Amino acid sequence: MKYLFNSSGNWIAFKIDSYLFNSNANWIGWFPWDDEHAVDKKGNYLGSIFDNDRFYKILNFPYRGYPGYPGYPGYPGYPGYPGYAGYSIRPQNTKDYTVEELKKLEN
């Protein structure tokens, strides 16, 4: 399991294998290309992992084609609370996510 944070150091999501979950442990996306870039359940670009534990949306991310559908991952279990990760400078041309924004993707 990899915990993911925004630039403020708040825990916003976690990754298990190729699946992405919000902090409520609800599936919100996946990593179809075996790299740091994630899509939502509909196949639209969602965000990318930076510096091993930060999750940001790259503005103007190039379209990479429809990645298909991975199948439902099942419930990952309670992820625990990783604590506060500390502030990090957000890279240029990226957007930060809040906990609330990723919780809206549950449905």
From TrEMBL:
Residues 3-56 form the 4-fold beta flower domain. This is 4-fold beta flower domain-containing protein. InterPro entries: Bflower.
